[in-house]
Amino acid sequence: MDIQTTQTTPANPATPATSQDIQHGVQVLLGRNRSFAATDARQQATPLPFVPRELAYVITCIDPRVDPGQILGVGIGDAIVARSVGGRVNDAVINDMAWISYLKETIAPDEPFFEVAVIHHTDCGSALMADDRLRTGFAERNHLDATARDALLDVAVTDPHTTVRHDVERLLASPDISPRIRVSGHVYDVTTGLVTTIAPATNRQQD
Ligand SMILES: [Zn+2]
Known about the structure:
This is carbonic anhydrase. By secondary structure, the protein is α/β, with parallel strands linked by helices. The protein has helices at 19-37, 68-71, 91-107, 132-141, 146-155, 160-173; strands spanning 56-61, 79-84, 115-121, 182-188, 195-202. The chain has 6 helices and 5 strands, in the order αβαβαβαααββ. The chain is globular and about 50 Å long.
């Protein structure tokens, strides 16, 4: 059966999605995977240790409108991609980069280092964390104390130009990240489709 041709939209848009509908959506993607597997795209990816072909490590939002494969043309093997709410540089993002950085220095010391691009975007859903009612409700539901609740406010990308500069500085200041890694900051405009560089690439250990 060709899964891609299967109807995916509920007959009545007013009908709430069921778990079966959700599984159905994943089945569409799995059908696309079979099409992908039939190509030779995988042979274009670099083997371990995976120094990405474009020497790029992209951090961006989980928002489906901000897919690096679409807005940056990131193909298989081109870049390491990390996604978080708002594209924020949090502890998990830093820990992952520290691990990759260690692998790079240990297994592929002679290969060039990748550059990190932090990309925040306009109309970011993370800004909803600045809504007192939503933030308080989320904190209550997840039994967060007042400190953790207030920390959610720091995640909100209400001004991507400001938050992306903040996150670039946070990465550059992290002792867990190799000083050889250059970091840049950018803002993606979901209306125009353009990415604008806000913080040019720099690193702690100046060339
Ligand atoms: Zn977002």
